[in-house]
Every structure is written in C-alpha cells, then in structure tokens.
Design goal:
about 210 residues; three-stranded antiparallel β-sheet; 8 helices; about 50% helix; 6 strands; alpha+beta; elongated
Length: about 210
C-alpha cells in the first residue's frame, strides 16, 4: 500500500517537477538567443543555468527572457481500439495491477499512452502490444509480447520494478519505461528528451482523467 500512496502523491510532485524543467531563452542585444533552464539576476549581472553548467554576463546584454516554445511531437496515428477491445484490455490491466500492487488507473494510463489499448500495436522502433514491450525486454522478462496476457503481466511487473528501483518516484520510473533506465541513470533523473518529457505528461494527464471525483 505504501507504493500506491507514493504513486498518488507523485501526481502533484510531477507537475512541480515539470514546471522546474520548463526552459527559457535569453534574447540578447546582438539578436542572439541563449537557452537556459533558469536564470538569476544579481545587480548588473545575469547568470544562465543549464544542466551542464552556467554562464554569467552583463545584464545589459539581455533584452528580455522568453519561455521555451515547446510543442509536443505529434502522437502516432493508430487505429482506435473498439469498445470491446478496450474492455478486454482493461480487465487484463486491472488484474495485473492488483497482482503487482499498483493502482489500476496508473497502469491503464501507461497502456493508453503506449498503445491506445490495442493488442496488435507495433511501434516504428519495434515495440509490441498493449504495453509496447521491446522484444529484448520481453525476453528478459520471460514473456511473449504478442500474447496480450503475457504482455500486460510482464509490462506491469517491469513498471513495478522500475518504481522500486527509483524509490517510488513515478516520473523517474516513467522516464525509464520510455527511454530506458540507462538514460535516467546517466542524467540522474528525467533525461532532457522532449519525447520522454511529453510522454510523462501524457501519462499523468491520462491518469488524472481516470481518478474518481472527490
């Protein structure tokens, strides 16, 4: 139950984490633009911070700051699942979620983002099925990704293991599910991949949609 409570709390924390990730551009008097995660002004100096370091300059060189214009990549066009396909998938998802101690709505949100509940979904990169397992990952988990029951069971188990690996930090686990644990470990958190950041937001949005009204 601790994992469930931690996941629910992560919904709020994830929103804050995303806000912290939003970048900006410093528009210079020369006409150039410098990207920064954030900036700090101190007297006549401005310091621009990025993930790899910082740059200090005269404040007079900066005309203004503009928020990063971020447009999420277009979602892959897939044939929508029928209501009967979705109902069948939800039953598999909820059973697996309960088996591995995860909130069913959370796992449903991952499946919705990954495949739109289509058991026959295959991504351009070769990810398969409801939870879009890569063949190599499926082999490591001892599952046949083309069999919906095995796909959902293995994918949910993998998601649970990622949550445990990252101390129940949902945004880290989701980033690892999308981009791989290696990327999360390399950047000590959510990697600076727009696709991954958009994916995390999409899962969070879908998860919130499935939460019962309080």
């Amino acid at each position: 139950m601790y994992l469930v409570r931690a996941l629910r709390s992560a919904a709020i924390l994830l929103t804050c984490a995303w806000s912290a990730m939003a970048g900006e551009y410093a528009v210079l008097t020369s006409g150039g633009r410098l990207y920064a995660e954030r900036h700090e002004a101190d007297g006549g100096k401005v310091t621009l911070y990025t993930k790899t370091g910082s740059t200090e300059m005269e404040a007079s060189r900066v005309v203004r700051f503009e928020p990063e214009d971020y447009v999420p990549p277009p979602e892959a066009q897939t044939v929508p699942a029928t209501s009967s396909q979705t109902a069948s998938a939800v039953e598999l998802i909820d059973d697996a979620a309960r088996k591995y101690g995860l909130p069913p709505a959370f796992v449903r949100a991952v499946v919705a983002a990954e495949s739109g509940y289509r058991t026959d979904a295959v991504s351009p990169k070769g990810a398969i099925g409801l939870m879009q397992l890569m063949p190599a990952t499926a082999r490591e988990l001892g599952a046949d990704p083309t069999i919906p029951e095995q796909n959902v069971d293995a994918g949910t188990r993998y998601l649970r293991d990622l949550l445990l690996k990252y101390d129940n930090h949902a945004y880290h686990a989701l980033a690892a599910y999308n981009a791989g644990p290696g990327a999360v470990d390399k950047y000590h958190g959510v990697p600076p991949y727009r696709e991954t950041q958009a994916y995390i937001l999409n899962v969070l949005r879908l998860w919130r949609q499935q939460q019962p009204e309080q």
